[in-house]
Amino acid sequence: MKVITTKSELRSSLQSSRTDRKRIGFVPTMGYLHEGHISLVKQAKLECDIVVMSIFVNPLQFGPNEDLNRYPRDFERDCELAKKAGVDYLFHPDVSEMYPSQSLTYVRVGQITEKLCGASRPGHFDGVATVVTKLFQIVQPDRAYFGLKDAQQVAVIEQMVLDLDIPVTIVPCEIVRESDGLALSSRNVFLTPEQHQQALILSKSLQMAKDKLASHLFESTDQVSQFVIQQIQTQSLAEIDYVDTLQYPSLESPNSLTDDLLIAVAVRFGSTRLIDNVLVRHNNKEC
């Protein structure tokens, strides 16, 4: 595995692969890797000849009162995990490399960024769309891999790629969970044992709602969301940011319970904000 810190070196290193028509897979991350990230690499290894991973904590997607400085970092550990997983090129630029001067250009995706995390974190998806566009321009991958734990982010990136004619295939990958059901996240390290235990209500309530939908026990999506809220509120440390049930991937209000649905939650346990979701497909595909 080759560690690269500059845009020019990465472009140069990948040139021969493009000349040889090798398929390039890309896994963008903010580091502090866990098995969720590694699962994306594994999928990329199955489908591509070359795998590039980026580790960059993007300041544009953090608000003024969010945890940019607190976000966990351990590059030496990340290098070992990436190398073991089979990453060919690890791109680790610093902020000045990605943003050498004040940016006057931003990428903004409308409508689907106005719900869920977009509503509670204004400007977050502008930062995500901008940095992912820059990374796509630098890496020029054939396929890019994103985890569905942040299903809204996947929808935003898919829409951006479609609208801007970016020649990359977005590959959504299923959520990877700890053995107790908690969705893997770099932020899980901040949870106390009690917070971790109470946070299990997220996956439990989402799965219960999905099961009840399959059994036709809800009459509206409002009932779905209210059920999940009631379950989460049984945990004393849980502070709900949002719970919503929306069409996926449009994130519009559903017309019926037979639409493809995303049940999504964001909940704080202490200072740690966790997101989770479940997708309910009605076209014989499950996530």
From TrEMBL:
The active site is at residue 37. Pathway: Cofactor biosynthesis; (R)-pantothenate biosynthesis; (R)-pantothenate from (R)-pantoate and beta-alanine: step 1/1. It catalyses: (R)-pantoate + beta-alanine + ATP = (R)-pantothenate + AMP + diphosphate + H(+). CDD domains: PanC (cd00560). InterPro entries: Cyt_trans-like, Pantoate_ligase, Pantoate_ligase_C, Rossmann-like_a/b/a_fold. GO terms for molecular function: ATP binding; pantoate-beta-alanine ligase activity. Beta-alanine binds at residue 61. (R)-pantoate binds at residues 61, 153. The keyword Ligase applies. Catalyzes the condensation of pantoate with beta-alanine in an ATP-dependent reaction via a pantoyl-adenylate intermediate. Homodimer. Belongs to the pantothenate synthetase family. HAMAP family: PanC. This is Pantothenate synthetase. The gene is panC.
